[in-house]
Write a structure and sequence with these properties.
By secondary structure, the chain is of the alpha/beta class. It is built from eight helices and twelve strands. A five-stranded parallel β-sheet has the order 2-1-3-4-5, sandwiched between helices. The protein has a four-stranded antiparallel β-sheet with strand order 6-7-8-9, with helices on one face. A three-stranded antiparallel β-sheet has the order 10-12-11. The C terminus is likely disordered.
Length: 252
């Protein structure tokens, strides 16, 4: 299928020295990741600095951004991830971290807070890495063949144009409203917990006092279900939400 993975691999932070052994180990890790992606029918384009990465993203259509993180505090890649999210981009981001064991927790929090969708420490376990990549692409509809129109009882989502309509009437959605509705549609009939929605749509971990999901669901319901006999978005009390067609369950 030869889908493109954009890979940001800046190496060590400026001023740090790398031994020959460490360099061989790092390059072996790169080869392992590239081989795993080839097994999935994907190719990689590696950028070593931020401007090169920006040029790559502006001139290609990758299905995933793979970003290597060495220094959580001074990593220049955060600005690129933030730009993608601020412009409503749905490009999934997986962060690979070579941080020390003591820094892994802070690195993971930084990755999700910045808008990353997945996080793995290096070196990766090849099997787990491949599963996580495929799952991320499935959840975001980025893999070829998964980005077709989604149709649910008159509701139509077009991920390529990021447009929504119901019964032929276009529904105006903000970028994040579209992302949330699309996530529910991809998981049609499956209960999506608030914590999983926060992680997959917003890219950060669940906090007990966060009601952003409920607020966005309320806005989406006003656009999707108001005035329609068949309600598509359902609340699962104490858990989250589910999008289902009338034939998949009773209206409530």
């Amino acid at each position: 299928m030869n889908e493109l993975i954009a890979w940001y691999a800046p190496g060590l932070p400026p001023g740090e020295q790398e031994s020959a052994e460490d360099r061989r180990s790092r390059e072996a890790g790169y080869s392992e990741v590239e081989a795993a992606l080839r097994d999935l029918g994907m190719k990689t384009a590696i950028s070593e600095d931020v401007e090169e990465l920006r040029l790559l993203l502006s001139g290609t259509e990758p299905v995933l951004l793979l970003a290597e993180l060495c220094d959580p505090g001074g990593w220049p890649g955060w600005s690129v991830v933030a730009d993608i999210r601020n412009h409503g981009g749905i490009l999934p981001v997986m962060v690979l971290s070579a941080a020390s064991e003591e820094q892994q927790g802070a690195a993971a929090v930084s990755a999700f807070d910045a808008g990353g969708n997945e996080y793995m420490s290096l070196p990766v376990h090849t099997g787990e890495f491949k599963c996580r990549v495929l799952n991320l692409l499935k959840l975001t509809g980025r893999r070829r063949g998964l980005a077709s129109l989604l149709k649910v009882d008159g509701l139509i989502l077009d991920p390529s144009r990021r447009q929504v309509s119901r019964d032929g009437n276009e529904l105006k959605m903000t970028p994040k409203e579209f992302d949330l509705l699309y996530y529910l549609a991809v998981n049609l009939g499956e209960i999506c917990s608030r914590s999983e929605i926060l992680k997959q749509v917003w890219g950060y971990q669940f906090h007990a006092d966060t009601n952003v999901v409920d607020v966005y669901i309320r806005h989406i319901r006003m656009k999707v279900d108001k005035g329609h006999r068949n309600k598509l978005i359902h609340t699962i009390r104490g858990t989250g939400y589910v999008l289902r067609a009338p034939e998949n369950g009773a209206n409530c």
